[in-house]
Write a structure and sequence with these properties.
The protein has helices at 15-24, 40-46, 65-78, 94-103, 115-124, 158-166, 176-188, 199-205, 219-233, 251-255, 266-271, 273-283, and strands spanning 30-35, 53-57, 84-88, 106-109, 169-173, 194-197, 239-243, 260-265, 289-290, 293-294, 296-298, 301-304, 307-310, 313-316, 319-321. It is built from 12 helices and 15 strands.
């Protein structure tokens, strides 16, 4: 994503254009990594790997504003601008959306259900009344003449207009009400760049088993997914995004039509460690021989070939040595 870098790494990428280009087929879909644990060392470690985008989950983690901001900067700078940071914000709070954007990220807005909610969150992402924006202009995030260089110097709103055009806004539809209202949302609220169908929350909200967000065969579920797909087809300028992990059996199906695909996750990689543990349990067995000698335990003492060992003391023919004090005692009780 180096081609979509802004003039300064303190500014967000031109992620809106990247999504448009992926959606129109000019470039391949963006490949993403999901960070569910949201820790700075993890962000620093994965940033140079080459993912097109990295998703910081601020909604479902305990990180605060400073940690989130540092993670965004780690991704921006350690990837040398090659990776776009997205932050899923905790709810629809105006200030939280501003914090993520001020850090230099694009944003993911969860649980959008109505036109009013969509209007509120989009307003929080934009500067200026022409685009119905209510975002506050941060006075010290960018240094005049140093980090505020504009990609489009002709924009009438200057740097703030450039920022409006740079950071992408993705909404998540995670309830049946959201699915049913999506057509009105996309018709009445411009500047939504992508939509993610949150299958786990959607299933839970419909009183269906979560199935780890992998869907199901219930008629009401299939109807909801069909309605979502039909609605998105009526709005061909808006990109679709979602999970599509290579290990999933329906990988190719999950890739279809998406301009952004989440193909890996820190939590999934760590869960893979359990496979190593289970394999180890199958292979590692209790020891039965030590130094070629059969070993058995009796009253907490190890016995082997007539020699008892315990607490660092070895007894042989009534003689103790290696008492643990560095002294050797012979059979007459003399040192």
């Amino acid at each position: 994503m180096a081609a979509y870098r802004s003039p300064s790494l303190f500014q967000p990428h031109r992620a809106r254009q990247a999504l448009r280009d992926a959606h129109s087929g000019k470039i391949a879909p963006l490949i993403g990594l999901y960070l569910g644990l949201s820790t700075v060392p993890t962000a620093r470690f994965v940033a140079p790997m080459g993912y097109d985008m990295i998703w910081i989950d601020w909604e479902h983690s305990s990180c605060g504003v400073e940690t989130m901001t540092t993670m965004v900067h780690e991704i921006m700078f350690m990837s040398e601008g090659k990776t776009i940071p997205f932050v899923r914000v905790p709810g629809h709070d105006h200030a939280a959306i501003g914090f993520a954007l001020d850090a230099g990220a694009s944003v993911v807005i969860p649980q959008v259900e109505t036109v009013a909610e969509a209007q509120h969150v989009l307003s929080a992402t934009k500067f200026g009344s022409r685009v119905r924006g209510t975002r506050s202009a941060p006075p010290f995030r960018l240094i005049p003449g140093v980090t505020d260089t504009c990609h489009d110097a002709s924009h009438p709103l200057g740097i703030h207009g450039n920022l409006n055009e740079a950071a992408a806004v993705m909404i998540q539809i995670e309830s049946l009400a959201g699915v049913r209202n999506l057509d009105r949302i996309l018709s009445e609220v411009p500047d939504i760049d992508a939509v993610w169908l949150g299958t786990l929350d959607l299933r839970v909200s419909m009183d269906l088993p979560g199935n780890s967000g992998m869907g199901g065969a219930e008629p009401e579920w299939l109807d909801a997914v069909r309605l979502f797909d039909e609605t998105m087809a009526r709005h061909p300028t808006v990109a679709k995004a979602g999970f599509a992990m290579a290990a999933m059996p329906n990988f190719q199906e999950m890739l279809e039509g998406k301009a952004l695909v989440m193909m890996a996750a820190d939590v999934m990689a760590l869960m893979g460690l359990m496979g190593s543990l289970h394999s180890g349990r199958e292979v590692v067995k209790p020891l039965t021989r030590v130094g070629g000698a059969e070993v058995e335990k009796e009253n907490g003492m190890e016995k082997g070939n007539g020699v008892e060992k315990g607490n660092g003391v070895k007894k042989e023919n009534g003689v103790s040595n290696g008492s643990g004090t560095g002294l050797v005692v012979n059979g007459n009780g003399k040192v």
